[in-house]
Amino acid sequence: MLILYSHNITPRLHYIIDFIAKEFKVDPFQLTSSAEEFNNYAGGKVNYSEKKISDREIWIKPHDLLFEKGIKEQNIECFEINGNKAFFKTGGDYPFDIFAASFYLLSRYEEYLPHTKDMYGRYAYENSLACKEGFLHLPLVNIWLRDFETLLKQKFPGLTTHRPPLTFLPTYDIDIAWSYKHKGWQRNLGGLFRSLVKGEWSLIKERISVLRGKQKDPFDAFGWMNHLHEQYKVKPYYFFLIPEKRGRYDKNIPPSCKAMQELIRDHVIRYPVGIHPSWKSGDDVLLLKKEIETLSTFTGSSVVSSRQHYVRFNLPDGYRRLIDTGIQFDFSMGYGSINGFRASVASPFYWYDLEKERQTGLMVFSFCQMDANSFYEQKLTAGQTLEEMRRYYNIVKSVNGYFIMLWHNSFLGTDRLYAGWRDIYEQFIREVGAD
User: Which candidate, 384, 407, 374, 367, places its Cα nearest to that of 221?
Assistant: First the structure.
């Protein structure tokens, strides 16, 4: 049982304390603006104000952030505590305002400020405090809270918290279900011509063999993935791209294809299935609604989960569109050009709309590792990627968080471009299953 005193209980303060209470599984975590009620409280006490109130408390002198309205550039200077970075140094019994600093990172405050976008129109990770200060590879909020929890228990020995073990959640984006099959004669003829011009004779032979039914499509890893999940009792999430029209970034099999419909129906009886909004629907809420409705007809139920194609979204408009279309869970919080923790957290959290100053009902799940980032952006080998996954897994395990990774069926098939990646993925799943 904990009580927190503040002279002003704002929506921002309420939001971050609610998040921390859920992390610690402390019920109830009271908030009060009455110094008298705080003084008379018999349990654990956290004083979040300018002055010390009693001897039996943890006093955190606040930064202004949680009492402000609007968005402005913040003066942030990082320093080290317990071997990790922190900021918003204040005073009291704790070296920094852990509540304001956590809110800054979770709310993605910096993404509302003027910033440079990358080639896909996304928030570039180079803008982030985590990149500039070298903690992008850490779920820093979870690490801070772990240390704060230790202090709370030292100060208040009767305090009981309940931290669940690590949650392992692999997720898959089905951008291109098949490399050759079900694409129609025009696309396959075009592919053959391109290979012919480049002299790619082995690919010509492979395409013809697949289309004649003599060889499995190199992107068709679905049966193998199902077997892997069953063998190691893994429960993943799938996100399907179902664009009505093919575009530069929307190359999946169209939803009108019977094979695509059957693939989705086969997965929905096994796993949670969500929408992977097309590039074109990223800026068009009506098209997004149509894609969600189409997927819903195949799954036979409401679609409430999503992950943006190319992880392309901007705040606050991107998340508001999702809310307007009934999405309740989003898995886009990560970077499409580097692995790491975009929100510096390895726990689900509700999105806070900074412009409207309110907590929304959209729950955000952060991924920290993606195959395409490792392969295309970071130029890692399969072996180096296995080590990267192990490193992130152990970091998340140390804070009892959610280890969420993003992979594509194309990496797990038999395409020679990704030779060895299927093997290291299976090895990692085997290690996690034995953990």
Answer: 407
Backbone torsions φ then ψ of 330, nearest 5 degrees: -125, 140
Are the CB atoms for 399 and 344 separated by under 8 Å? Answer: no
Residue 115 token pair: 């910033």
CA distance 59 to 362: 32
CA 404-228-266 angle, 5° bins: 90
What is the predicted pLDDT for the residue at 200?
A: 79
Candidates 215, 262, 207, 225; CA nearest to 240 is 262
Q: What is the residue type of 54?
A: S
Residues carrying CATH 3.20.20.370, the chain: 167-179+217-434
Element (H, E) at 52: none
pLDDT at 57: 95
User: CA gyration radius for the chain?
Assistant: 24
CATH topology of domain 167-179+217-434: TIM Barrel (3.20.20)
Residues 6+ apart with CB under 8 A from 423: 382
Please report the pLDDT score of residue 190 as a whole number: 65
- Residues facing 47 on adjacent strands: 5, 59
The rounded distance, in Å, linking the Cα atoms of 388 and 166 is 18
> Could you report how far apart the first and last alpha carbons of the chain are, in Å?
33
> Token match 């989960």: residue?
305
The C-alpha atoms of residue 192 and residue 206 are separated, in whole angstroms, by 10
In which element (H, E) is residue 251 found?
none
Q: How far is CA 175 from the centre of its chain?
A: 18
pLDDT of residue 28: 63
Nearest to 187 by CA among 199, 174, 172, 176: 176
pLDDT in tens, 102-144: 999 999 999 999 999 999 999 999 999 999 999 999 999 999 9
Is-contact 272 299, C-beta < 8 A? no
Residues of the chain predicted below pLDDT 50: none
